[in-house]
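Archive record:
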Amino acid sequence: MYDRIRNLREDHDLSQNDIAGLLGMSQTGYSKYETGENDVPISVLVRLALIYNTTTDYLLGITDNSSPGPLNEESRARLEEYRTMFRKTCERKAAARKNRGKKNENNNS
């Protein structure tokens, strides 16, 4: 599994820091997933599958088919809801990190 998440990241020309930001965690923490030092929590595994538009079965090495396959209307709608929620969460977290950075700059001035 660890090689798959690294390979997908590299195939998408993303850095560990990019993915860590999407997941709301540190680069170091994410790096430990790719090296196998830490197990990947289910919630992170699901988010990675959504980010890469693949399945958790593919990430886990259960299948070599990376395509999620056809979805029925209900599943497609639910997936879009999750993606929207995930995107909004990422945007909120990025804005919060940016605001913390500005506060730290102001405090250091």
The radius of gyration is 16 Å. The chain is about 70% helix and 0% strand.
